[in-house]
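Hey, can you fold this one?
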Amino acid sequence: MWKRSFSFLAIYLLLSNELVASVEIDEKKILQLRETDEELGCSLWDAIPYILGGAGAAVAFGPSVLEFLGFTKSGITAKSVASHLMKWTATMSGGGVPAGGSVAKLQSLGATSSKSELGTLGAKLGYKFHEHFICKKKK
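Sure. Predicted structure:
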C-alpha cells in the first residue's frame, strides 16, 4: 500500500513542478492581486468568520444531518438518501462502493460522529463558501 501512496505522491510532485515551472511569476502582479484582495475583503482574515461558522455548524448539526440522511452508527438505513447514494455509486463504479469515496467517507462520519473530522470538513466548506460566493461577487 505504501508503494501506491508513494507513486501518487511522486506523480503529484511531478505534475505540480511542471505546472509551477510553466508559469512565469510576476512579483508586481502578485502584489497588485494581494492589495486588491485586501481591499475587497477577500483575505484570509476576512474568511475566518466563515471558517469558524462552518466548523461550528458541522460539529453542532453534522451528526443529526448524517443520521437524517441515513448514515447511522449501525450502518446505512434502508430506503434513505444514503441507500440511494450507495446504489447509484455502486452502479457507476461497476458493482461496488469504492473505498475512500464520498459514500464511504459519509458512512464513516455517520458511524463514528467524529467531531474533529466534522469540524475540519465544516471549516473547509466555510472557506470555500467565502472564496467562491463572497469574493466572486465583489470582483
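DSSP finds six helices and two strands in the chain. Let me know if you want another pass with a different chain boundary.
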